[in-house]
Amino acid sequence: MKSSKDTLQGKIEIIDRNLNYLNEVRESFKKQTNGYERLQAVKHSLFEIAEACIDMAGHIVAAEGYERTDTYAGLFQKLSENKIIPAQLSEKLAQMARFRNLLVHHYHYVEKGELLKIIEDDLPDVKEYVKAIYSYMGE
Predict the structure, then answer these.
(1) CATH number for the domain including 66?
(2) In which domain, by residue range, is 121 found?
(3) pTM confidence score
(4) Which candidate, 3, 23, 27, 26, places its Cα nearest to that of 15?
């Protein structure tokens, strides 16, 4: 492995911290009808998770000397092509990258229901990705 374990571990810590936060607030977020601060915090946590996942992929692609890609989704494709993550996970992470772009560029269109769906259905994909990165790191 050519990439820095410390760099990857730092990104994993960001992911873990945000996953823990989302797990803590999941039930209260479902019930809350008008919590602007919580809504913003959930958006930010999901953004940080996506950004850290993308950063790890970019770090590995660069460190391994894989062909560059011009999209975040393409980074996960490169990891799949090189057997670091499964193809199915690559597709799910590509969707996460597109959601990250939505949060950055069209944040006003993101609704609570969409955030809840991601918290409920998609966070296990992030955990699977972290496991694959640990495997890549040899841990």
Answers:
(1) 1.20.120.580
(2) 5-137
(3) 0.90
(4) 23
Q: Amino acid identity of 113?
A: G
The number of domains in the chain is 1
- Per-residue tens of pLDDT for the chain, all 139 residues: 455 888 999 999 999 999 999 999 888 887 876 678 888 899 899 999 999 999 999 999 999 999 989 999 999 999 999 999 999 999 999 988 888 877 777 666 677 878 888 888 889 999 999 999 999 998 6
Neighbours of 10 (CB within 10 A): 13
